[in-house]
Amino acid sequence: MRSRINGGWFVPVDPALSTEKASLFWLYQFLPLIIPLEPAPARLGASHRTVPWSVFSAARRYLDTEGCYLIWTERGVTHRFWLDEEPVAGRQYSAALVPDDLGSVRAWAFLRFCHALSGRADPGPYRAMTPRTELLYRQSLAAMDAKAAGASEWDIGQTLFGYQRSRDEWSDNAARGLVRRTLARGRRTLAGGYRRFLTWQAGGSRRRSRP
């Protein structure tokens, strides 16, 4: 089953798994880390390679009306794929990369997949989120959870940022401003800012240097 959100965004849910273990997927047109696959041409050139069936056999599959989503993990690196229908044994498949705005990121995801197939070292993500940015968003979502559970700004300041002073000193303290900014960031994220995470690696013109 799935839950549908704003205009085509969806999350297939496996009811047999806990929330912590469930794998989240999004439409491949919006998440550049998903590699679209398609049946390979009947006549292949000598240099044309297809996706080994062992990948399909080992991958977890999620079927939806939009297609079939696969997740394959090799040496600790997760690779995601999409097909318009469930793969059929005996049929050959190849990547279908499109030169769109997310093409460079998707091509990098495909390069990582090629490295995994050949046993070479993983080149790493195209563009990684900095630890500080990740921390800011984690704090924002934690603050929103606390607020929804009935916690006051003072409670959040104590729990999330270690504020130890009395409630009387709270109104004039910088910690109050920090909590309010954190909550404001959380509200923006829940209002639609979360979409930045999906195309995070496509942002900016610089990618990480290759090792």
TrEMBL record:
Top-rank taxon: Bacteria
InterPro entries the UniProt entry points to: RovC-like_DNA-bd
Stretches assigned to the T6SS Transcription factor RovC-like DNA binding domain: 100-198
Pfam families, per database record: RovC_DNA-bd (PF10074)
The name this protein goes by in its record: DUF2285 domain-containing protein
